[in-house]
Design brief:
Elements (H helix, E strand, L loop, with lengths): L5 E3 L16 H25 L7 H4 L2 H21 L3 H31 L9 H45 L1 E3 L30
Antiparallel strand pairs: 1-2
Helix pairs in contact: 1-3, 1-5, 3-4, 4-5
């Protein structure tokens, strides 16, 4: 019976291997998430100054600030989890990406509502009000595009970490070095038998 050369570990001791993680993928997506978060916060401040003319459900629900912070945290955790893929970092990145996907979905709905509420068909606005309305809709369209991108990235990252966690918890191994491996189940080598002697009768005197 052959001795075992590997030892199975529990899921809490897993360090995700390089084969499990695509190199540079999460770093790129995390950078896009951070950029999207700062864009939400910056353009959210601009939309806040236009609320006297531009009615924004996106701003009223404080989605640009809560969602922006969530996107930034998700991006940082994704980059950190790629550099040091411990279970704590992976679980944190997975959880924050789920939260970011929820905020992104709420943002998409809010932007669609904003664009319907602030159409360019209003006849009661003067030239200044028309420019404000045009600027608000332009910002909403740009943020809507980046919010859809953020939603796709967050869902893809959370799904990737989920599959990586399942793969590592099922197939993680600790390889024992061959120099220190002891084959406990191998049969012991047979000791050489001593040469047999024939009993001779004693000589007669």
């Amino acid at each position: 019976m052959q001795g075992m050369g590997s030892l199975r570990l529990g899921s809490r001791a897993v360090m995700y291997t390089a084969e499990t993680l695509p190199k540079g993928k999460n770093r790129v997506m995390g950078t896009i998430q951070i950029m999207t978060g700062f864009m939400h916060i910056g353009f959210g401040i601009v939309l806040t100054t236009l609320t006297n003319v531009y009615t924004s459900v996106f701003v009223i629900g404080e989605i640009p600030f809560l969602g922006g912070v969530s996107f930034i945290i998700s991006g940082c955790l994704s980059i950190g989890a790629e550099k040091s893929p411990t279970e704590c970092a992976v679980k944190g990145s997975q959880t924050m990406n789920v939260i970011s996907a929820i905020f992104a979905l709420l943002g998409i709905v809010a932007f669609i509502v904003d664009l319907n509420l602030n159409g360019l068909y209003h006849s009661g606005f003067n030239y200044y009000g028309y420019l404000v309305l045009l600027a608000g809709n332009g910002i909403s369209i740009v943020l809507l595009i980046f919010t859809i991108l953020e939603f796709c990235i967050a869902v893809a990252t959370a799904n990737f970490w989920c599959r990586a966690t399942r793969l590592s918890s099922n197939e993680s191994m600790l390889i024992v070095p061959s120099a220190t491996r002891v084959d406990l189940a191998a049969p012991s080598a047979e000791m050489p038998q001593p040469p047999s002697y024939t009993e001779l009768p004693a000589p007669e005197v």
